[in-house]
Amino acid sequence: MTSDLEKASAILDKAIETEQEGLRVYEEAAAKVKDPGAKEIFEMLARAERGHIKMIEEVKAADMAVWSTHDWKGNFKEEITQEIEKIGRLVVPEVGDDKVDATALEAIDIGIKLEKDAIEFYTNAREQISEVGAGNFFGMLISTERTHLFFLEMKRDSMVYGT
Prior knowledge:
By secondary structure, the protein is mainly alpha-helical. Helices cover 78% and strands 0% of the residues. The longest helix is centred in the C-terminal third of the chain and has 30 residues, at 132-161.
């Protein structure tokens, strides 16, 4: 029988792979996209993915038996609030006659799919673990992925509908 900590370790390995894939896609999208607003969003999301990878690796390297008392560095709520404010400023549409950049839309659609996949992955991971600290950690990752999804959808709407 597999323990919660063994399940969590395997899930964290998969989480690192998932975040690395997201990082690769966001970096490629930032390099290819022409829309400056979309480029800035993808660069910010790539930085966030790097942060997720680092955090997951740190948790995995730590004594996993102490997850429920893990001393998180920084103030997660404040960091998310700052991220929301920064992204919110980026998605405010600019007035102009610019046509929608199909490359940007394609990249945003890929990002939306990746964020939805990540939310599903972390939700399933949280449901498989009964250890409170691990569940809270996955919950935190779900929240950040939902924030990314929300603002990608807002950026897409602003590009398509000018709203």
